[in-house]
Amino acid sequence: MTQLSDLNQQSITIIVIDDDKDVRENMVDLLSTQYQHIQEFDSPKPVLARLNAQSPVVIITDLRMPGGDGLEFSKKVNALDANIPVILMTGYGDITIAVEAMKYGVYDFIEKPVDTDRLLKSIQRAVDKRFLSLSLLHARQKLEEHQSIDQRIIGHCSMVKQLKQNLLKFAPMDIPVLISGETGTGKELVARCLHDYSDRSQGPFVTLNCAAIPDHLAEAELFGYIKGAFTDASSSRVGKLEFATGGSLFLDEIESLPPSIQAKLLRVFQDGVITPLGSNKEIHTNFRIISASKDDLRNHVSFRQDLYFRLQVGECNIPPLRQRKEDILILFEYFVRKNCDSFTITYSPLSHATEQALLNYDWPGNIRELINVATRFVINGCKDIDHALVAGNDLIEDAEMSLKQQVDAYEENLIRSKLSQHKGKVSAVLEDLKLERRTFNQKITRFQIITADYKK
């Protein structure tokens, strides 16, 4: 079926329904001189099964047929979509039937033998009507998508605008999309939007963090296995690839996949089949692959380039928060208001000092860190920004803090800075700060630091 985005008047299909084969053939011969897409049926039943509220069709149907009543069929079409034009033909001219037909949304009523000129004019008007109704529907859908995406992905900087444009462009295309961005930038949110705005939105959205599964379990997790495939396989299990059939599969941190699994995954994309562990039976798959990586996979030393080119048909790049400074206050206020509603706390506008502190911070943990700080800000009564976040910022007077608070703020800021510098590698931070692991663990627990947020 033609997508609304590709619609033009010539793509509209004329459907002819008549139990008389000669009538159908003559009608098709007549219409084929002016229209590219024509389908014929001897009863209404199979037509109903093919229609939906966005079908780009105009229907011409006989009124009385052994396989179904044309008027009843028109009522059902009208209930499905009142904007699908239905033209009724009958050899039993009856003004009462005509009035009844118009009441149920029939576009026109033509008597047999058919006046060819009148029929062609009626069909062309019906085609124009259907094209206009679908064009308006498409325009409304695009407007709703843009309004929706602005509510789900907050931000107005040029890089985020480009991200939203790419997302809405790729979503209806059934192609692989690779999402790239640092930890905490919102890759899963973008993946979810790609699924929700696609034709697969009614299917499952299956997620798998490739870094969270041990290498020896990766194949079983992706491909599934049958009973007895290995020692602990007491029953069969469907893998993520099969479970995602009809929907989308989101593989986060795909750079973490072992090389052997990368090769098997490449075959799935090439052949469209999987073989569960312990089985010889091939299973056909039908899912859309959406992948994400915090690394640049082009020329990556441990990632197959042939797989990379399979995944990177469409690409969405999410900028880190430090590169979208104009969005920081918008994002922070959004999450503060959201938390205020959740905790039933009265919202207070941000002070100038707080705004400057937020803008002067580099946000190594990106959106995830910002949400954490916004939540702590609300819990503390929206009085002032967390001092630990802005330690050393001259816009907040150190005099407002006790000596212990200042020391804690300095320590937290230093640890966060070193974690960012060493990309979350704890051993390097310990060596740099000449710190014992036990002491380090105590401090990150006290300061609520998540080291995984700094891995890049």
Give an account of the 3D structure.
The chain is elongated and about 95 Å long. The two termini are about 45 Å apart. Helix 4 links the parallel strand 6 and strand 7. It contains 17 helices and 16 strands. It has about 450 residues and is of the alpha/beta class. The protein is about 45% helix and about 15% strand. Helix 12 packs across helix 14. It has 3 domains: about 140 residues, Rossmann fold (3-Layer(aba) Sandwich); about 170 residues, Rossmann fold (3-Layer(aba) Sandwich), CATH 3.40.50; about 130 residues, Helicase, Ruva Protein, domain 3.
What order do the helices and strands come in, and which of them pair?
Blueprint: E1 13-17, H1 21-31, E2 38-41, H2 45-50, E3 57-62, E4 64-65, E5 68-69, H3 70-80, E6 86-90, H4 95-103, E7 108-111, H5 116-152, H6 158-170, E8 177-180, H7 187-196, E9 205-209, H8 215-223, E10 224-225, E11 237-238, H9 240-243, E12 248-252, H10 259-271, E13 273-274, E14 283-284, E15 288-293, H11 305-311, E16 314-317, H12 328-343, H13 352-360, H14 366-379, H15 403-421, H16 426-433, H17 437-446
Parallel strand pairs: 1-2, 1-3, 3-6, 6-7, 8-15, 8-16, 9-12, 12-15
Antiparallel strand pairs: 4-5, 10-11, 13-14
Helix pairs in contact: 12-14
